[in-house]
Amino acid sequence: MDQATFASPAMTFSVLASTAPVLAPRVGKLAIPGRKTLATPHHVPLTSRGTVPHVAHDVMRDHTEINSLYAGLEDFIAKKQAPVYKTPAADHESPLKKFICVAEDMPLILGPRRFPPITCPPANTSASIALLTSIGFTQLSAHDYVKAVQKLRPDIAVGMVDLANKQPGSKRRGRMVDRTHAWTRDALEQLYGDAVPAQEKSKSAYFAPVLPLDNAQQSLYLDDLESEFRWDISGLALYQSASLGFVPESLAHLPRLLFSEPETPHTILRDVSLGADLLTTPLQGAASDGGIAMEFTFPAPAALQQSKSEPRPLGIDLWTADHTTDTSPLGEGCECYTCKNYHRAYIHHLLLAKEMTAWALLQVHNFHVMDTFFAGVRESIQRGSFEQDLETFARVYATSMPESSGKGPRLRGYQLPANGLDQRRSKPKAWGLLDDAKQKFAEAQSEIATPDTDASGLEEHGFAEKLESSLQQ
User: Fold this and answer.
1) pLDDT tens for residues 116-162?
2) Where does it mainly reside (predicted)?
3) Residue (of 201, 208, 212, 215) closest to 235 by Cα position
4) Which of 87, 108, 352, 428 is deepest in the core (most CB within 10 A)?
5) Helices within 43-169 (DSSP H only)
6) Which strands sit side by side in the sheet containing 205-210, from one edge to the other?
7) Are 71 and 113 in contact (CB under 8 A)?
8) What percent of the chain has pLDDT over 90?
9) Predicted pLDDT of residue 17
10) Is residue 334 a known part of a binding site?
11) Do 168 and 69 share a structural domain?
């Protein structure tokens, strides 16, 4: 029996099980006409230029259970006349999906920036936000973003938000609220306003952003979300876990998309316990890059619950030499494509050989682990045992992911922070010609015979004659 259902022309969201409107875990179902249904809570896979890192589209289709994608507009608008806007598509199709070769039934979420975003030195303005494209920094105006949503027709559009690169001061917080408020108001008016003809109104669901600020600092904006904007927004986009507590009860029926960067599944469970429905989890991508095969389930297996041994690691570092002859699967009892066809020794060999297949197979496995993890979370909430299972999971598993002992693949541009010349190197320098020349010069200098005595000692050994200065004469 549904406890609450939200319906709009773009999507329907039903809450199937929950103990409270806010700050409580809940199970739901998000349905978009003609698209795959999303059971929540669930994770949203992140893309780079429309592709899940290390996973080709055919691999994603045949060997994973990925059923939604998030893409950032900044990945596609490097050129002034972006090719993505010229992609031919029928009225019922998304040009963006055609451009990135994604099936039409795959729910696609579009935001202004990729996630996690790279910090941009240029500041946001009252009409635009700073982006980092493949050719440098630029500005994306709120008007152009709305036009992009209208042209690309994603299933869900995340509203533009003014986020600070560092802890904002009181004046900066005020500007963040004012700008986000104005951008949301104008976007809703241009997409769904009364002045827009019925046949031209956007079919995309709009998720209004909630700023990572205290409730009181954005109270006027939240009030307008409850009243003036309520009938046009289809969900909420949040940027910190604490914001889940600021959701008004009148908007509790809307799905909540949390842009988070959890470092462990423990953090994911905490966010779910606060009422997050959709979560971004860069965790599995980072684990794959580090050569880590994730190994955890929720609830924790009964055999582990009764064990009093040390906490079980959340993953396996496949770079270590003890996997050289280990022919066991990556995860015990795992049913993913990787574990059914390959073993730890093979992945270990691929990592040492720097074969791209290693990270592709790890990514397939880690996505399967995350899918299974969220399926267990939903079942636990429906059984009413989530809190107990959460405590058991925290006791059984380690509090942090294992450290990688390898270097991983070459970092891509969107993974390198734009912090200037003093940023830490991700890898040691490959070439050291200048340092090598400096060292050789120092060695050459040290080979010159240098006496270990003064002038008197040299005179005593007959190597020199000490002369009296003219002043002493």
Assistant:
1) 998 898 999 999 999 999 888 999 999 999 999 999 999 999 999 99
2) cytoplasm
3) 208
4) 108
5) 57-63, 95-100, 142-152
6) 42-44, 278-280, 256-258, 235-238, 205-210, 156-158, 108-111, 69-72
7) no
8) 72
9) 76
10) yes
11) yes
Tell me: the pLDDT tens digits for 175-213?
A: 999 999 999 999 999 999 999 998 999 999 999 999 999
Residues 201 and 328 in one domain: no
Please give the model's pTM, rounded to 2 decimal places: 0.86
Same domain for 137 and 75? yes
- C-alpha–C-alpha distance, residues 360 and 70, integer Å: 19
256 and 388, same domain (yes or no): no
* One domain, residues 253 and 319: no
Q: Is 352 exposed, middle or buried (0-12, 13-18, 19+ CB in 10 A)?
A: middle
Whether 193 is in a domain gets the answer: yes
DSSP for 53-78, written as a single string: TT--HHHHHHH-----EEEEGGGT-S
Dihedral sign from CA coordinates of 456, 458, 463, 469: negative
101 is in an annotated binding site: no
339 has binding-site annotation: yes
Q: Which of 250, 277, 234, 159 is nearest to 9 (CA)?
A: 234
